[in-house]
Structures are given as C-alpha cells and as structure tokens.
Design brief:
This protein is mostly helical. It is built from nine helices and no strands. α2 packs across α3 and α5 runs antiparallel to α6. The longest helix is centred in the middle third of the chain and has 21 residues.
Length: 174
C-alpha cells in the first residue's frame, strides 16, 4: 500500500474507527507503543541514562562476569534513539560515552583483539561525522580530541588512524 492509498483510506474512516485502529496498533506492536510512549513523555535523560548503564555493563559487568565488549549494544541504542528523534546532542554524548568507556576498559585491561581497536575507531569516525552533519562538533571538540589523545597514550595499534582522521577534520571543518 502506498502512502497516498493509506491517506485515502484514513480519510474514509470515522474518528472512532481511527481511535480503535490506533489503540489496536498500540496494543499489538511494541514499536508503536515505544513511539507513543516517547512522543507523549519524552524523558530523554532517563532513556540515555539507562542506555549508558547497559553500555558500561558491557565493559565493566556488575556481577563478576567477563566483559563482553560488544559495541553492537551501543549501536542498537543509538539507532533506536535516532528513530525516536532524541536530541542530537544526547545521541552524540552517548556515542562518545561508548568510546570513552571502551578506552577506560582498555586502560585497565590488556585487549589483544585487533577487531576491538578497529571497531572503536569506526565508532569514533561515525560519531565525529554525525556531529559534523548536525553542526554540533564544536560542543564536543574537547572530548573528541581527548579520545584521540587517549589512543596515543595507550599506544593503540591504530592510533595513527585517529590522528590522521582528526587532522582531516581540522583542515576541513574547524
């Protein structure tokens, strides 16, 4: 069904029929419920706070388990928040928090997986590009530079990638 057909169909329905359909969608589909819960009570701080706790738990588990270090957990939250329309500064904060948490983990424990470093650099690249696209890079510039510096201090295998990327950003956007 095209959007035009949907609009035509919806115009034919009475107000009561529309209310019934929306109520049914709300009950039947979790995504609709999440959307309307957010639309009518956009408690962004709480949502981002909960996401930060779960992301931190990936690297520093509360119950003596082994760290899983899955960046995919953060990616799911970021994608979900973008879909909901959460404020871009809060999304950018979450993106940087994820990277900072991973760096904090690697400063305390030796990480031997190349994929970890590549994944964190990819997250860094995506975060900086997101901030540039939304015109908020200057708000987070200190943290962006600090992440690059931390990769140098920890002597990450791809620290040069961080340096080269920030130099390109500096030349083009700052």
């Amino acid at each position: 069904m095209s959007k035009r057909d949907l609009k035509k169909y919806l115009k034919e329905l009475s107000k009561d029929q529309l209310e019934d359909q929306l109520s049914e969608l709300y009950d039947k589909f979790k995504d609709v419920k999440v959307y309307y819960d957010f639309a009518f009570n956009p408690n962004e701080d709480k949502l981002v706070g909960e996401a930060k706790v779960k992301i931190a738990n990936e690297y520093f588990p509360a119950k003596g388990k082994r760290a899983k270090m899955r960046r995919s957990v953060a990616q799911k939250y970021i994608k979900h928040f973008l879909t909901l329309g959460v404020d871009v500064t809060m999304v950018a904060d979450l993106m940087l928090f994820t990277i900072e948490t991973a760096q904090s983990f690697s400063s305390k424990r030796h990480v031997k997986y190349d994929s970890f470093f590549k994944s964190i650099f990819t997250a860094y690249h995506q975060a900086v590009n997101f901030m540039i696209e939304n015109g908020i890079l200057n708000e987070f510039l200190d943290r962006v530079v600090e992440i690059k510096e931390e990769s140098n201090r920890q002597n990450w295998m791809n620290k040069y990638d961080f340096n080269v990327f920030i130099e390109k950003v500096d030349d083009n956007f700052l």
